[in-house]
User: Fold Recombination protein RecR from Lactobacillus helveticus.
Amino acid sequence: MQYPLPIAHLIDAYMRLPGVGEKTATRLAFYTMDMPEKDVEDFSKALIQVKNDIHQCPICGNITEKEVCDICSNPNRDQTTIMVVEQPKDLMAFEEMGEYDGLYHVLHGVLSPMDGIGPEEINIKSLITRLQKNDDVKEVILALNSTPEGESTAMYISKLIKPAEIKVTRLAAGLSVGSDIEYANSITLKRAVQGRTAL
Assistant:
């Protein structure tokens, strides 16, 4: 039996989300259909609002609804340290930890030649430009996931930064190989930041 077209379209839309297969998408579609109309309207407005109002900070690449994100525009942050993360959700994880008060740079991905993702596809060039324009930065912390792609990206960035004589460090043990930063608890992240090592 085929679903009516509007439901089929909704199932297809949900299946575009990462990790959502046909069964989950179908369940979500029927749940959405049973929601009060106001909740559905609020949900759709939230989707449109996030697409219209959220953009990348021109300095660090974090997501923001302002011209420049709150972290970059905060003069009380440590201007001598930049932590490089893969995604905004990783930045949020470190902010929730509350132990790091420096700046960030969000790559929005990692190098993955198999997937056709090279240096031009992620936010590396702007990091190098940022470092060239800012003499205050003394350390760059590469806080990337411990995956082959994360490791190769860290090494690539490290080689680009070395000539600038800026200290480049990597998060310490505490994050197991293959683990994602967003799922690590605050104690693990704190130990990783405190025990970072030079590259």
About this structure: The longest strand covers residues 78-85.
